[in-house]
Amino acid sequence: TLSLHDALPICGTAVDSIEVMENPTATIFPAYPDLCITDPAISLTQGSGLPTGGTETYSGNGVSGNQSTGYFFTPSSAGVGQHAITYCYTAPNGCETCVTQNITVNDVPTASFSSIQPDLLCENSGPLDLTPYGTPLGGYFTGVGVQSDSTTLKPGQMGGPGTYTLTYIFVDTTGCSDQATNPVTINPKPI
C-alpha cells in the first residue's frame, strides 16, 4: 500500500496499490559461431527467457523470420564483419529484457589453380609436384592421380591418356574456403 501526503496541510489521503513486477531474464547460449559469407542461413535458437510462456524476438543485420516460423541469420545478407544480434524476451507479465551478442561473418579466400602445360604430362611421366600451381600456398589438390599427400600427381595412375579435372582447395585460418578446378591433359607415352 502506498500513501501519499502533501507537504501542505493534509486535505485528504490517497491510498493505492502498486504491483512491482520482476523483469524476466534473457540469455544467449551457446555463443554464435563464426561464419563464412558463403555459409547458408543458420537458425537462431540460442536465446532463452524465464519465466516461461513469454514471447521472443531476434533482430539485427541479416536476421529474418518471426516466432512462428523461426528466426534465421543469413551471412550473405549481413555482409562481412561483426554483427550485433539482439534477443528480446517478453514475459507473460509484459516486462521485457534484451541481450545482445555478436556474430562474425568472414570473407572467403580466393583460390586459383594455374594451368599445367598440356605437353608436360604423358601417361608414363614421373610424379609432378602440384604445389606451385595452387595459390594461396597451403591448400591441397583432389582428383584422379593425386596422391595421399594431396600435392603430388602421378600421371601413370590416372587411367591412361585423356583430360581429367583436378581441384585445388584452400582453407584459411577462419575456416572459410574456396576452390578452383583445372583440366589436366595426359598424353599417350611416346612411341
Kindly describe this structure.
This protein is mostly beta strands and 191 residues long. It is 2% helix and 43% strand. It contains 1 helix and 18 strands. The strands form 7 sheets. It has a 4-stranded mixed β-sheet with strand order 4-11-10-7, with no helix packed on it. Strands 5-9-8 form a 3-stranded antiparallel β-sheet. Strand 10 and strand 11 form a beta hairpin.
Compact overview of the structure:
This protein is mainly beta and 191 residues long.
Main attributes?
four-stranded mixed sheet, three-stranded antiparallel sheet, single chain, 191 residues
Q: Catalogue the unreliable spans.
A: none
In percent, how much strand structure appears in the residues?
35-45%
Fraction of residues in helix: under 10%
Q: Give the oligomer, counting copies of the same chain as homo and different chains as hetero.
A: single chain
**What would the average pLDDT be, to the nearest integer?**
91
Strand order of the largest sheet: 4-11-10-7
The topology string of helices and strands comes to: EEEEEEEEEHEEEEEEEEE
How far is it from the N-terminal to the C-terminal residue, by CA?
107 Å
Radius of gyration: 31 Å
Principal-axis shape: rod-shaped
Discrete helix count: 1
Largest sheet: 4 strands, mixed
Helix-strand makeup class: mainly beta
Count of β-strands: 18
